[in-house]
Design goal:
three-stranded antiparallel sheet, EC 2.6.1.-, PyrdxlP-dep_Trfase_small, Aspartate Aminotransferase, domain 2, seven-stranded mixed sheet, 400 residues, Aspartate Aminotransferase, domain 1, 2 domains
Length: 400
Amino acid sequence: MSIIAESLGRIKPSPTIAVTTKAAELKAAGRDVIGLGAGEPDFDTPENIKAAAKTAIDEGKTKYTAVDGIPELKKAICAKFKRENGLDYEPSQVSVGSGGKQVIYNALIATLNPGDEVLIPTPYWVSYPDMVLLGGGEPKFVETTAENNFKMRPEDLEAAITPKTKWLIFNSPSNPSGAGYNREELKALTDVLVKHPHVWIMTDDMYEHLVYDDFEFVTPAQVEPSLYDRTLTMNGVSKAYSMTGWRIGYAAGPQELIKAMAKVQSQSTSNPCSVSQYASVEALNGPQEFLKERARVFQERRDLVVRMLNDAEGLSCPTPEGAFYVYPSCAGAIGKKAPSGKVIENDLDFVSELLESEGVAVVHGEAFGLSPHFRVSYATSTEALTEACTRIQKFCASLS
């Protein structure tokens, strides 16, 4: 009898972490590798936020806190939702976890019963399906296409809903495609959801502040207030404030759900890091002007990467509305032979040969549920991106 639980056989390790680890191993072995797999900004955490953390340490705020967040942070989160999204929440409706991933996991563990279906548009963040499976539910995928800019159509959502549907996980702007839904597009989806009162909505708004070309971010409960009582609106400080390692995510929703999530968290990690919570209070309450400047830099990087990838033979790269990823198609490379002699049969072969041949690490599209594509993170320097895209062009030109 194996010591390993059978439930772990339903899931797989994170492919994005695997790519980052492989790139690090090659670097350690002396290879010149450019990693475009990581999903974190290259900017440092702002000084005022770091100062708040140091102050918290100096003041001895290093003890246990309330299981799902200190009152000061919950108050700051409520103020953020009101200020930026026009949503009214009380602190009792707010949950704080060790990153957005834990918040989503808590919600799924607290609500899923065997046979419950969770709708997930493709391409999706790699962790969604596995967290659903660990919670005992069944992921059900709603396919999108590059022709629709990787956005779910209302008719596809309608067709996917069944009596077993419990949640829709909605991520805009998207990891991995960067696709963002404008108000009109989102309203068409919420119109469908209004007709199905048994379906709950879980939003992943982590890339809210990373939007480009005058795109206006909106979230479902903001667009359709009648969905407020069955929506969990999730966000965090990781991406916008360059605080990935601080591990603070948060969500707001109906009090009954928030209490259930706190119950789960009380028997797993208990409270998030106390110092990180005080730093996050400063992040949300402090100066916000730098967000637009960083978004401007990311937009310039996006434009560079899209242009250079579209100039690569066999690749086609749409221009996304937000986040810091692009999701090009490598369909034009399928069936060709790499310099190693291997025939590229799928996107995994493409990214593997790219890494071995040119030392550029990206993530294959199969990991995100939609092939033949690959994800490029442009959360790194312009110099590194230029060199990486030049290498990608060279690799594509070498295929025969």
